[in-house]
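Example for tutorial group B:
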């Protein structure tokens, strides 16, 4: 019986973790073979491929780590709360917050809004920004009761700094200023930190409440 349970757990772990990894590797290999792209182009680190200094893209990479760390915490807390409490709203709030954070993090890390998505969808990146904003607003409005009851100052600051980053991006399309990237990406970085701080704190507080019930 114990051996059977162990085998079942192994196959569940395989399907959840190793199978997706194998699919990704197979997809990368297949894409490189079909397109005739050197396999190193999709596997190796960009810094190695470009021969760049280790500090190149430091702030961008740090922001990506914060994005994906927040995603993990949201999903973990959502799974915990879904089983630990009768009220499923906090779990749903964190789950969809994790989905949005994952999408924003992937977009930011791979700069999808810069070229990939506009070329694929044939729309300007500012239209994509508008869709991101509408999606986030819809999410916050749907869970507005939870948002209002929470310690939401970091979330408000996140929205302010993200809006400032987009504003700087639009402004610098017409006016070139020294250190323009500092203002645009610096605002975005503070927004990422604020966004993550809100969801991490909310996750912590809800899990503490669940364990005390």
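The residue assignment follows.
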């Amino acid at each position: 019986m114990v051996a059977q349970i162990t085998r079942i757990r192994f196959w569940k772990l395989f399907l959840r973790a190793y199978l997706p990894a194998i699919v990704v590797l197979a997809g990368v290999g297949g894409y490189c073979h079909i397109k005739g792209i050197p396999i190193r182009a999709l596997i190796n680190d960009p810094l190695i491929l470009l021969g760049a200094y280790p500090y190149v893209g430091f702030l961008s990479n740090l922001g990506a780590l914060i994005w994906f760390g927040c995603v993990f915490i949201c999903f973990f807390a959502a799974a915990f709360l879904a089983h630990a409490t009768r009220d499923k709203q906090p779990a749903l709030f964190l789950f969809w917050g994790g989905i949005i954070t994952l999408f924003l993090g992937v977009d930011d890390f791979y700069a999808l809004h810069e070229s990939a998505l506009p070329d694929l969808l044939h729309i300007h990146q500012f239209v994509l920004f508008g869709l991101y904003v509408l999606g986030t607003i819809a999410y916050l409005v749907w869970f507005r009761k939870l948002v209002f009851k929470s310690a939401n100052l970091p979330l408000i600051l996140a929205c302010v700094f993200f809006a400032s980053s987009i504003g700087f991006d639009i402004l610098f399309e017409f006016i070139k200023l020294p250190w323009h990237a500092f203002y645009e990406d610096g605002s975005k970085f503070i927004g990422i930190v604020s966004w993550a701080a809100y969801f991490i704190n909310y996750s912590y507080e809800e899990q503490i409440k669940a364990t005390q019930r």
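The mean pLDDT is 87. Compare this with the pattern of hydrophobic and polar residues in the output above.
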